[in-house]
Amino acid sequence: MPPRCDWRKLKGVISPIKRQENCNCCWAMAVAGNVEALWGIRYNRSVQVSVQELLDCGRCGDGCRGGFVWDAFITVLNNSGLASEQDYPFRGNSKPHKCLAKNYKKVAWIQDFIMLEDNEQRIAWYLATQGPITVTINMKLLQQYQKGVIKATPATCDPQLVDHSVLLVGFGKRKSVAGRWAEAGSSQPHPRNPIPYWILKNSWGAEWGEKGYFRLHRGSNTCGITKYPLTARVDLPAKKRPVSCP
Amino acid sequence: GSLRNQDPGPQPLELKQVFTLFQIQYNRSYSNPEEYARRLDIFARNLAQAQQLEAEDLGTAEFGVTPFSDLTEEEFGQLYGHRRMVGEAPSVGRKVGSEESGES
Predict the structure, then answer these.
(1) d(Cα A75, Cα A110) in Å, to the nearest integer?
(2) Could you give the dihedral angle defined by the CA atoms of residues A153, A146, A215 and A85, in that order, rounded to the nearest 10 degrees?
(3) Is A97 one of the catalytic residues?
(4) How far apart are the first and last CA of chain B?
(5) Best residue in A94, A135, A137, A144 for a mutation probing chain B (most B CBs within 10 Å)
(6) What digits encode the pLDDT tens for the residues B9-56?
(7) ipTM of predicted complex
(8) Active site (annotated) includes residue A217
(9) In angstroms, rounded to a whole number, what is the distance separating the alpha carbons of residues B38 and B34?
(10) In chain A, what residues touch B83 (CB-CB under 8 Å)?
(11) Cα(A201)–Cα(B38) distance, rounded to whole angstroms?
């Protein structure tokens, strides 16, 4: 496992930061980002897929009222892929629209989707070796967030109350900091070890956070990041030699 | 800038000046003096909360003025997140499972 990973550094993998406008579609934007990234990594082709198709063609068809990433993956499977953002553009308003998926050529599709285990080591390994992953977190601390690595406790950010889906695009370690505790002279020891963090792509525009991204501490399930790690698979399942369990 | 880096300077900016900068930066205007006063109050509360978040954070995060600083937590949750369901799938605006019993 590499000490750090950042899929933004590979051209054509991570599309520009999106903005939800008046539409509760974080779940659809996270899945669109996941499919775009996996398609870019696997086929070396930069695509931007239709978020609006996920909103209009989901099982409830009014995606701006909210949804789940697993619904979005099922919509991709049911529609045999996603049209391009150009053909089937995002409207940004909360009125439901008829599904137009049949009208457009698909530019990306998936074989299936999986949920990873709630283990940050395994998630980091999968991220580094396969590609970005959608995660669902408690967004409570994000309204006032500007920059840096958020490290919360279950008391300040309940990991069970997850309500916002984003895309995990990398991880790293930040040099140790003297930290505010040293200045404040509080009892807390300022960290001697570097701070491991996740890099996450949000859908609130590029003027929020770190140019639309934010970082969470890695290794303490900050804000419930391990609760719903889901990702599409775009590769044909490699023929696995049959194994026999004794 | 974040509260930590804010240069204390001889005279920290008045709240209203900070709010005016926020309105300019994020292109905000309010329909009447009452709404302006209400948003200024929410803005002040959010700044105070940002200070508390920064004190509580165990990492290196910085909190302060953001594009959402004139929204209450409820408004923000409605616009960008959703009702919370303890222990169940994230509500993100919808109850898990079907409303009618027996629906496939």
Answers:
(1) 11
(2) 130
(3) no
(4) 52
(5) A144
(6) 555 578 999 999 999 999 999 999 999 999 999 999 999 999 999 999
(7) 0.87
(8) no
(9) 6
(10) 163
(11) 32
